[in-house]
């Protein structure tokens, strides 16, 4: 009997072990079959504002049609959280009006938000906001899990309608995510925002209407903003909520705000950094380049009364990251620099310089006209295209080109360089002032102070266009018999005195001269002499001709032989000097000159006809025609002629 019992116990144990093993295998099989849930991108409407979403970082899908102006956007690049998420994405260029996926990341609030027009969306300005966000392409980062369902602040709950505080639901963080979790402070702030939108206006009656939060125009602060800030602070400190009818005096004062610098007035320049975003530079060196830009921005003291700075990045093609007026202080500029992403591609610096000349320094992009234009080009190694022609056009447009070459070609690598001595051919001047050669990216930071000192030395920015270095000046000189040899030498001295006032070179002001009687003679053209001393010597060598006075024919001759060869980037000035009435018609030739953009100054001596001078001169004639009773008094009019030339120049757009 005992033996039978033992046998039965053994059988039971054996069966139990079999079932246990079978269950383990079954569980393993079940484990293998479990799949992670597929990430679904939540969709939002066009009117959803970033401040309504509690999640600090998320991917969403925007519908089509969010370009509508009723979806308000505040800021540029960095947006106030009161903005439409999808509207901001279109403004920043991440999306078009057809919609799509975007990645949104919350960042700190800004002291101010600058409105701008971009990609069909007009964003608005805002004085300050407690929370901001940035948008980028909707490509999730590796190792980061984004929420499939967003957490909203519940502003439509019954409590919110009655003006009572509401509680936001905080979703538990998804395991494995590296996105920052929502903090209690964030929830408190979101709650304060919701409660604020439903706070009643101060009123004796209990049933007062609710007030909505409305962003105010730049430069103004609303009691709503101050009330919200006070309410938020009270919530975070577990103190009683601020009474809606009471706004502390400290909150109303703008003195508490950190004053923003107006910029260094001793360094008033319009500066474009042209940075290398090619694939060859690599991610690490690109980060070093961005840090260098941030350090320069800090050292420059950016502001409306001082330097302004924009950035163009190039690879295969150039693209403006932001223009001169996008960020008006060093702090905001540094924040924007941090967001720049690398373009990749080749290193087409020449194409980038052309882009800067044609597009960047315009009034629409913030060019002030009264400040020198400076472009600092950074190149990793060497460009993959030629820079000489593009740089020449930039210099002739008044842009001071600086070149920073980092880790330039070694002797063995020079055979691969597309354009030898490219830096020498590109810079404003080849005296070493405009070139910086850096041996390693890791020592680039050492050049910050040297570069800042150079770009701020406005007296040495020789390529800036001024009234004295940006013209082709053609002198048309009467050599008729009535002038005489002695007076002709006096006229030549007057021409020389005027020429001395200009900065003369092949890329600055150029001088040419025509002498006329019945006939015309080209004494020298714009391309014949490129230094001031050579010009003055050429003037001395002009011989007196003698003959009749055909001023109309002389104007036509000067247009054909001199100004037809003028550069398109130059101002064309004709200075005509005569001592009598013309034997031929001057009206039609003068009209042709004016139509071709030649600014004509008419200077008459002795027997010159004043009515004829006024016909020859550009309108208004009182600023472009002069009469001198004697040849010996010509010298007295040199300052007046120069003053009028410069006054007219300074009244025109810089580029």
| Helix share bin | 25-40%
Number of helices: 19
Distance between the termini: 115 Å
Assess the beta-strand content as a share of residues: 15-25%
User: Strands across the major sheet, in which order?
Assistant: 10-9-8-11-12-13
Taking all residues together, what is the mean pLDDT?
80
**What structural class is derived from the secondary structure elements?**
alpha/beta
The geometry reads as elongated
Number of strands: 19
Low-confidence residue ranges? 1-10, 28-33, 155-258
CATH topology-level name of the largest domain: Rossmann fold
What is the radius of gyration computed over CA atoms, rounded to a whole number of angstroms? Answer: 36 Å
Number of domains: 3
The major beta sheet can be summarized as: 6 strands, mixed
The CATH class of the largest domain is: Alpha Beta
- Give the name of the CATH architecture of the largest domain: 3-Layer(aba) Sandwich
At the fourth level of CATH, the homologous superfamily of the largest domain is von Willebrand factor, type A domain
Subcellular location: Secreted, Extracellular space, Extracellular matrix
Protein name: Vitrin
Function: Promotes matrix assembly and cell adhesiveness. Plays a role in spinal cord formation by regulating the proliferation and differentiation of neural stem cells.
Subunit structure: Binds dermatan sulfate and chondroitin sulfate.
